[in-house]
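This part of the workshop introduces the protein records we will be handling. A record pairs a protein's sequence with a compact description of its fold. Backbone structure tokens are a discrete shorthand for how the chain folds in space. The question running through the whole workshop is how a given chain folds. The record below serves as our worked example for the rest of this section.
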Amino acid sequence: MKSMATLLKVKREDRPLMYTIYYAFFVSGMMSTLIGALLPFMKSEYQMSYVLSGAVLSAHQIGNFSALLIAGVLPYLIGRKRSTLTLAMGIVIGFLLITLTANPLLLLLAFAFTGIGRGTFSNITNVVMSEIAENKAASLNLLHAVFAVGAFLAPFIAILATVVLNVGWRVSAWLLVAFELIALLFISRSTLSSEPTKRSKGGEASFLRSSEFWINAATLFFYLCNEASIMGWLVTYFTDTGRLSPALAQTTSSALWIFILVGRLLCAYLASKMNKNLLLIILGALQLSFFIMMITVDSITLIYLSIFGFGLSMSGTYPTILSTVDSKLTSSTIAMGSLIAVATLGAILMPTIVGSIAQVQGMAGGLATISVAIGVMLFLMIIKFIRSYRGQHIQ
């Protein structure tokens, strides 16, 4: 049986780096859902309003946004390894801080730090895998599948700490810190360059004049509106509306990520068998259908069915969009950092919008606004398909 490295066409000397990158993104996935899993406990203990809860989720995305910009430039100054180690420490600092204080300003700062670490991993892992793997579409889908495994496991860590062992939600945060420190240790011993990256001649900002850059950035913008809000608010939504018990509500995040994992593996296969832009339209249409189903049905069975369908359809969107981007963009840390940073503005804005509407209309009304973002995303996917179809026939 062929190894994963062989299937992805990764050179032997780059294989230790590949596994390090996958583990780092696995930890980043754990963090992404642990934030949502711990938010109801923090909201209760710290007496946080919907507005503050939405603000800390947006602070996380602001940190993510900032890191994507900084991580695109810092390697040119101090090298990839030093910049990654420096910025990724934000996850350690942030998770330690949220366990120590209920001060709103410090909580905002703590979530911003976690976002800095997440943005750093998002940038460096996608760039490195695009460089060392010849089978780019499969490597990126598998990279995000590993992220999904971490995201799936994290809520169970929260359940284990709070329900099974009854040792409190802080223990799960501290465990994540330990996983992160291991990731940083691996990175420090990896073959990532410690030397400042050399700039290519011809101007790094030329990608800003590319219509392809902006259509992909806009599509990712609305996708991340959807993803960030769902990941941050899903457990709180089912808890506060009473549609599921607190224990069942905690499992919704993991249920979502089970099918995100399955879907990303499936999309890694389908991406090599069919038009990727057509695949995106199918995924977008299914997302809209299953999301509407999720917020309208009352049956527990149908709720979980809609979550599974939504996770399956949401699964391959992000990596598949990235795999349609020209290699001139994906191989540049500045271009990739800028693309993901522009898209991350959606992840910054939408959680606060949901929280603000929930403060007035209730959590059900707040979450329902996400359907608008999904609809716009689907429209942009159709535009991407038309552009690619015309481009193929012009050629």
